[in-house]
Task: inverse folding
């Protein structure tokens, strides 16, 4: 099909040219004397993106799933009790991973579209007077439902009862796009992936661990080798890796970090919020509903949009792909066929969002769903125009 | 500015990934024994795009201006009489080039927005009983005004009086995008550029010459060396070039020709027409007017759109660029400030056109021009949806 | 430093332009309807490179270490007895990995420079009348010492006593460079990495499993999730992956497989042997010794070269890097400072090998080691010239 | 053929990765408001490479031939008398170009292998009491014979008799590789090409003109349009171009200038000299002769090497290409079959030169020419080793 494909799944995202080119290099010697000068800066800047001064950053040549596994296996032992919530497909999969490693997961089910149930967590933590819960898992942004949970509130609930469990956060689709504050929220293990806000190909699991988490990792836990923190720590401190690292991707990470820090993390978050608001204005104009049940859970990186009863969301996604070259996300598991998803994260601007909306409108109409063509686009345009002035002022300042 | 810039000037156009990658190669030996096997195919396929079997194709490492110069200097002598029309900035510049080479140009002026005046040409050709006119120049697609001229009609007018002048066509923004038929229309010299329908960087002048033109080139004409046909012919026949050719661009040309021929030239033309119609539907919905005065002159590769009196089109272009990252074309010379231009040629699809329209709408409104946001987008969407079905059927067939 | 760096470590290797460009693409939707048409062919062709018809190929977004872990954790349970040999640093690390997963490894130590001790293995297998040994590990090519082991002989030893253990092969630096025959040698689990013979960046673990291995994997084994065979099998059969795959690397793998199969695996092996012989002729001319103790163990992908007593091999490597831009491999662990390594695998030809030899000669001399400049180069040149004729004939045929 | 091809023709040269990647960008709007900020710096830095403060730099999207044409047609009129020497194929072609533009060339013939005959020039200039000679042409580095002429001496000869002619220098294969001093030598027009010392693809003609040359260009001269200085000057001063410029190549030029200025021009020249000396040591070791007749003419960018009588140099080039993937330059015109050429310019280091020498040795021997394998390599190695220490010291300083 002629023309550039339009990629609006919630990751992989659109890679900036600067990142693409940074990775288009010859292979290099990962044991060369010059290598550490390059890698040591990566760890430093990665910590800035996680907003941690005290923690340690790890770079695994794996996917987000690998990041989850690294966080879990280094710090927990088979049989350990874990508190988690199943708020969508990805939080479900993390729970499944824990169970495969022999952990005893207390998985709280909520209706998909809701965030992590802070009050239920608070009750359970208070009730756990024997401190059997060793880990509390929070999916910061559930990519399947477009729901952002309140990590700070979970921390507050833990602190309220002085619970010593470690706090684990899946930030795969939030870190570098939605404000995440590792130190301030006292998060112990945070996991991000390269193919979302970092605007890189999918292949790096970025993990941050607090001093408390690192302390926990010192005693024998789950079996692991590829994902071992200690091997990494021992070699990373000199700028090397325990096995051949993904050198080209590390070069891309350098470019990614440069872009993020040059724009400024707060500006990156504001931009994501502004663009996400445009999408939500469009959804409202279409008279459709988000999967996320309340505004406080609206995600600034992905919107899962419900199609009216009687329609098949998969049909919308198929038409968008085959007829207009637009990749949208399908609904997964419990919401399969009920929602389609627009990813609006990474290297994105107003016109790109309008492209996704214009294409979605056509696909929705082609699938028989009634809405006025151009209505969502117009609502988003209006929002972008109104907020552009403030932006101009800010940019000029 | 984050996100991908939106390039909608009438050339350079959006380069397909396959073309970009084809050029991302090491430099090579242009005198190697393997080189001819590669280059000879280029000339063959280039002729297909010009729709000529009888003619010869030339590849100069220069811009379209260089292509004009090659066509003129190889076949005309100082003092030769040339018939041309000044229908916009680019036809004006070609006339200027002829004059610099000492040609005696009879330049017919028309209001910008009109095409080549076939009747005036017919009169002048009929009146030229001494056959002093050696060359008739037609700008197939005037990029400054978005006007397509009727080349076949000019040929008909020449044939009607049996006029032996050579017929020159500037196809820089038409060849490979708008139907051009060198042999059928008996065109003697046709000039194309790499950065328009060929979707390449600006640096190749592609010229085709008829047997009659090549015959004319055998006797001394204007002074030239870099643009000499004979040097090219002598070396090209064995697959080489008289001086170092633009090897990486030739690799890109291979990819470009592969894409054009795989899609099929007629499909390429249909696609351009369909997408251009979408733009025109939007312009109508905005209640604005094209610079092109009549539908028969509407260009399928570029639309020059008039802003209402009292507004400055340059302001629209500036806002689009600075606020939304959208590159539109400014008005040139006589229509400066009066029109802005949307280029809709090359590697383009529906969503890309909608992006340009959505961005233009915001910029127009920001510049104070009254129109309903989303209106142009909706009109184009409706057109694309209605024509998509026919396309699906055709693709499936 | 001006000029192209010379990369001659035993992986990552020199990436062909075709592979580099194949990966230089936009990110894509790994759940798109078109994706399986692309991925299913990868698995098919990957099996050809492993020379297996019966087995199944897996592609993990990890390093070779991850490949080892996948092979082990899917098919063995904590406490299982494993027979292995510590013939160099990488076989040592694989043993270490097994131990971390709770396996009971019977690790046979040999002097570094020797291959897997087939006779010792035969004795132990014969002695294991209770069939407690569940796994036999062979490092086909030990990258640390430049030693190739005889996998077929180990299989023969197992068959001689009808031992039912699974046979595991580390083919990270052999598969796609040195003849490896999964089905013929009845190998159960084979592991390769992308950054060696596959000429790709380091990030794909390529694993092949026999039907017997897959059968073993059906019952609960070591804890795992990221490296789980079953998740892969369930999704791979439709062309998808259980988590976001390394899409750009998969595009590169396509190009790599195309190159390997176009050259022909046997030709690839012959080329590696011929080039390796050139290196060995040079080493002989320098009057130095390989780490590999006997010709039957000489590796066709990497040569570990001993420096004379009293000299520091690390010094040679440092000079080569800093003064001549040549990356050689250092000696690891037991042979640190005693050997330096030349990697001669992947996308390589005669002139590239001569470059490594010419640079090594200068560095060796600069480090004070006596040898005649040009002597190794001349020996390799002579070998390449003598064998070039046969090659010309073969190519012409 | 597997492995990287070895490119050692005297241009195009080996492109550094940084330059390649700088050009691997999306197409851009050459009329955007941001464009001048980028282009104006190019002109400034280009002047540094030409070593001119007073002159003006031009960038034409053409080859070196186009650069010659620009220099000539803007400053001379048909019938003007030109003094030049035919010292090789490229100086011959420049003379031919002048003649095609109607200039009256007094072409002094010398034996190929000699430089511009300064004394003959001095006599002719002295004899030209009517000052009919308007232009003196010097080929700074004749690529066909590997001969560098003494530009300063020609200027001295002109000054000695106070001759007012303009001094033209073909610096295509010298500028950015061999010391060239536009202002100090009072050169009026200098021409360079992108594909030599600038390490770029062939497609930019880089021209510098002195104030005196620009003054000459103000009155009507040869017919021209594409190569017109005035059009360039008018638009360049604001950072734009009269027609679509080669944007991607301009991005590459930025990277090239950055590399040259970061290394330091004097270091670049020293490096070329040191590497060229290595080649010459090898030629001596082979007991062959250079085409250049005297050391004062030896070129630091290209060596034309004579094969012994009775042998065909083309055969050597063919064998090198087909058997070893090594591109050498053939002999042109008068020295066809008698010499082969090694280009040693651009992004080059010691190991790359040794590669070319090692390959040449094999090809020479395969062609039956007697020499000791490794002998040239050893001679160059010895030279590189001896001079490396001084370099280390300089680098450390």
Result:
């Amino acid at each position: 099909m002629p023309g550039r494909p339009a990629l609006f799944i919630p990751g992989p995202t659109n890679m900036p040219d600067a990142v693409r080119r940074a990775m288009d290099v010859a292979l290099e010697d990962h044991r060369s004397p010059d290598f550490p000068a390059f890698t040591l800066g990566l760890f430093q800047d990665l910590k800035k993106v996680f907003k941690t001064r005290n923690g340690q950053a790890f770079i695994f040549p794996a996917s987000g799933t690998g990041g989850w596994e690294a966080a879990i296996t280094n710090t927990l032992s088979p049989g350990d009790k874990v508190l988690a919530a199943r708020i969508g497909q990805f939080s479900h999969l993390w729970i499944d991973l824990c169970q495969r490693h022999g952990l005893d997961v207390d998985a709280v089910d909520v209706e998909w579209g809701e965030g992590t149930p802070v009050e239920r967590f608070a009750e359970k933590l208070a009730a756990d007077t024997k401190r059997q819960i060793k880990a509390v898992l929070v999916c910061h942004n559930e990519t399947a439902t477009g729901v952002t949970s309140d990590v700070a509130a979970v921390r507050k609930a833990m602190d309220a009862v002085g619970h010593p469990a470690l706090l684990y956060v899946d930030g795969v689709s939030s870190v570098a796009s939605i404000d995440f504050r590792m130190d301030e929220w006292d998060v112990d293990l945070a996991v991000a992936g390269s193919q979302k806000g970092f605007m890189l190909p999918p292949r790096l699991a970025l993990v941050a661990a607090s001093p408390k988490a690192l302390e926990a990792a010192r005693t024998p836990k789950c079996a692991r080798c590829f994902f071992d923190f200690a091997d990494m720590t021992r070699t990373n401190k000199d700028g090397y890796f325990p096995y051949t690292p993904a050198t080209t991707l590390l070069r891309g990470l350098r470019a990614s970090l440069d872009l993020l820090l040059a724009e400024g993390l707060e500006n990156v978050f504001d931009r994501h919020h502004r663009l996400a608001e445009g999408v939500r204005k469009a959804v409202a104009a279409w008279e459709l509903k988000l999967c996320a049940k309340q505004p406080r859970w609206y995600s600034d990186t992905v919107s899962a949009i419900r199609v009216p009863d009687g329609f098949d969301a998969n049909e919308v996604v198929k038409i968008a792909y085959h007829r207009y070259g637009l990749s949208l996300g399908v609904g997964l598991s419990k919401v399969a066929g009920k929602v389609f998803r627009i990813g609006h994260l990474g290297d994105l601007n107003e016109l790109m969002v309008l492209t996704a909306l214009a294409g979605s409108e056509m696909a929705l109409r082609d699938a028989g769903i009634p809405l006025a063509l151009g209505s969502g686009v117009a609502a988003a345009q209006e929002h972008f125009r109104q907020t552009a002035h403030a932006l101009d002022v800010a940019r000029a300042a």
Q: What stands out?
A: The two ends of chain C are 43 Å apart (CA to CA). DSSP finds 13 helices and 15 strands in chain C.
